[in-house]
């Protein structure tokens, strides 16, 4: 089969009028000679530009541990090395965001507006993590329904209405689910199996201590740095803790005890052949 | 003018609301325009955790309750969060206040008792067409409601720890105090609603309300304006038509006017 659309033939001009060949030049910028949007097909985001890689999170008996590295990648280039991808919303919620960084900044802005709006009319902070998650799901699903998605996958963590730990996933399609271990992007392939060894069910979670959970997440971040070529060894680690009713933020955490001896045996991949 | 709107509330039949720590009760007296007609709806459910009782222009109450229902659904849809009661009542208060200072419009001619339960506990608010909102332990609006308030003022200290059943008894007793001498509460003209921390908003009408009226009949039928030491004596006369002490308020002349 000839895969060139221009060789597929076209509707009869006598029936359908002349074919608008400009459709092939659809873009997200409106050309100057076009008067209305209807004259010209518009194009929405079809791929993310600068991206953040995985966010990983795991439940433990008193809360949630979440981590995301600080890199903004432009293709395979490390464009930014100081992106904070875990954001606070109110006092009881954190949101870890992977995917497009500009859409991350947009989400950051609307979530901040949400927190401000909420503190206005109640004169106290009433925004629970579960509310933030539901709101994000609505926003993301609404945008995908306009065929103009926000190119992100998020993990929302914090405290719910009952003050219990909360952790749930939502992505650019509006797909939402909860599980004792969650990860976005590459982490969904590499980190999830490791996380599930320790926290597969809520029964496992009851046995998992804060220290074990933090070490587990640190291990996963190290393995992601080993094997995910768009990741960084500098990351932010957050701990949601029910006993202290607090959300700890640890910035600029580094991967430790790495062994790179094997690297000298690697050949190919653009490295000089032995 | 707001003065006339506040007057319209007094023309409507009475509604009483009481809160305990975990429950809110609304009771109201329904009126029928004529013998063969149906009774005017007095209590409207907003959501599983909230409802209103009205006194005044019923159509205005419908407009406000429809608005509240929309707010409640939108809160559920967007945040999966039951609408906060204070937020709800202030949202209609803002609408009411707008009407008091814009040309061409008129204020809402209805007063509401908003009952609901949220993350901060059980709440009872009184809404007025002026846009004024106040939270109460016990409140009464509508015709001859001063009589009910007098009862509430005497008993309010017992409300906080009362059970749901006791709360309904108190509310019905207060409502009964608003009646004129020739009238009594029955299953047709009484409506009761309860909402609690672990209990959805429920309205009791017609046959369902009889169970609560039965409880009332087992209590003293004496008007509760009597001094405590006289209660013993008045209980003996329980089965006889209760004596109605002269109502000194200026409301008595319009006690049976219709809205």
From TrEMBL, chain A:
Signal peptide span = none
Question: Which is one Gene Ontology cellular component term of this protein?
Answer: cytoplasm
An example GO biological process term is: proteasomal ubiquitin-independent protein catabolic process
- Supply the name of the protein: Proteasome subunit beta
The cellular location(s) given in this protein's UniProt record come to: Cytoplasm; Nucleus
Q: Which CDD domains match?
A: proteasome_beta_type_4
Principal subcellular localization: cytoplasm
Q: What does this protein do?
A: Non-catalytic component of the proteasome.
Q: Which source organism?
A: Pichia angusta (Yeast)
Family matches, as InterPro entries:
Ntn_hydrolases_N, Proteasome_beta4, Proteasome_bsu_CS, Proteasome_sua/b, Proteasome_suB-type
Question: Into which family does the record put it?
Answer: Belongs to the peptidase T1B family.
Annotated keywords:
Cytoplasm, Nucleus, Proteasome
Which PANTHER family does this chain map to? METALLOPROTEASE TLDD, PROTEASOME SUBUNIT BETA
Q: Which Gene3D superfamilies match?
A: Glutamine Phosphoribosylpyrophosphate, subunit 1, domain 1
UniProtKB/TrEMBL annotation, chain B:
The answer to whether the entry has keyword Transmembrane is no
Query: What does the sequence similarity comment in the record state about its family?
Result: Belongs to the peptidase T1A family.
Report the InterPro entries cross-referenced here: Ntn_hydrolases_N, Proteasome_alpha, Proteasome_alpha-type, Proteasome_sua/b
Q: Please state what the protein is called.
A: Uncharacterized protein
User: Mind listing the UniProt keywords for this protein, alphabetically?
Assistant: Proteasome
The reply on keyword Iron-sulfur is no
For bias type Low complexity, the affected ranges are 230-249
Location of region: Disordered: 215-259
Q: Which domain of life is it from?
A: Eukaryota
The lineage is: Eukaryota, Fungi, Dikarya, Ascomycota, Saccharomycotina
């Amino acid at each position: 089969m000839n895969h060139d659309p221009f060789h597929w033939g076209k509707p009869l001009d006598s029936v359908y009028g002349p074919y608008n060949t400009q459709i092939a030049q659809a873009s997200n910028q409106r050309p100057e000679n076009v008067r209305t949007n209807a004259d010209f097909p518009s194009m929405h985001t079809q791929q993310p530009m600068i991206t953040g890689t995985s966010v990983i999170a795991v439940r433990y008996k008193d809360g949630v541990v979440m981590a995301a590295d600080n890199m903004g990648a432009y293709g395979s280039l490390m464009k930014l090395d100081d992106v904070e991808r875990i954001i606070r919303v109110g006092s009881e919620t954190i949101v870890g965001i992977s995917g497009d960084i500009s859409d991350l900044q947009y989400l950051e802005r609307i979530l901040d507006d949400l927190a401000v709006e909420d503190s206005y009319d109640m004169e106290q902070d009433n925004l629970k993590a579960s509310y933030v998650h539901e709101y994000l799901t609505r926003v993301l699903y609404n945008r995908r329904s306009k065929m103009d998605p926000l190119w992100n996958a998020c993990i929302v963590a914090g405290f719910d209405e009952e003050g219990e730990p909360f952790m749930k996933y939502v992505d650019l399609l509006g797909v939402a689910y909860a599980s004792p271990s969650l990860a976005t992007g590459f982490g969904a392939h590499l980190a999830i199996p490791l996380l599930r060894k320790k926290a597969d069910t809520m029964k496992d979670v009851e046995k998992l201590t804060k220290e074990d959970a933090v070490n587990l997440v640190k291990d996963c971040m190290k393995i992601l740095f080993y094997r995910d070529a768009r990741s960084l060894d500098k990351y932010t680690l957050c701990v949601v803790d029910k006993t202290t009713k607090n959300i700890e933020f640890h910035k600029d955490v580094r991967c430790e005890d790495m062994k790179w001896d094997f690297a000298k045996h690697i050949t190919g991949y653009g490295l000089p052949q032995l | 003018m707001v003065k006339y709107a506040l007057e319209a509330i007094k023309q409507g039949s009475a509604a009483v609301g009481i809160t305990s720590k975990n429950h809110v009760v609304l009771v109201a007296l329904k009126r029928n325009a004529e013998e063969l007609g149906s009774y005017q709806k007095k209590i409207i459910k907003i959501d599983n955790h909230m409802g209103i009782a009205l006194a005044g222009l019923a159509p205005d109450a419908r407009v406000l309750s429809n608005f509240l229902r929309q707010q409640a659904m939108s809160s559920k849809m967007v945040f999966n969060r039951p609408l906060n009661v204070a937020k709800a009542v202030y949202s209609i208060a803002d609408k009411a206040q707008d009407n008091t200072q814009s040309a061409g419009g008129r204020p809402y001619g209805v007063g509401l008792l908003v009952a609901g339960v949220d993350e901060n506990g059980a709440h009872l608010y009184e809404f007025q067409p002026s846009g004024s909102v106040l939270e109460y332990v016990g409140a009464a609006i509508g015709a001859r409601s001063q009589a009910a308030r007098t009862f509430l003022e005497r008993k309010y200290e017992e409300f906080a720890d009362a059970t749901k059943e006791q709360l309904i008894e108190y509310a019905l007793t207060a409502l009964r105090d608003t009646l004129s001498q020739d009238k009594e509460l029955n299953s047709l003209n009484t409506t009761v609603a309860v909402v609690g921390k672990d209990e959805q908003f429920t309205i009791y009408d017609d046959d369902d309300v009889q169970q609560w009226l039965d409880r009332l009949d087992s209590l003293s039928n004496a008007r509760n304006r009597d001094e405590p030491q006289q209660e013993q004596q008045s209980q003996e006369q329980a089965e006889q038509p209760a004596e109605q002490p002269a109502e000194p308020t200026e409301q008595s002349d319009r006690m049976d006017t219709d809205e």
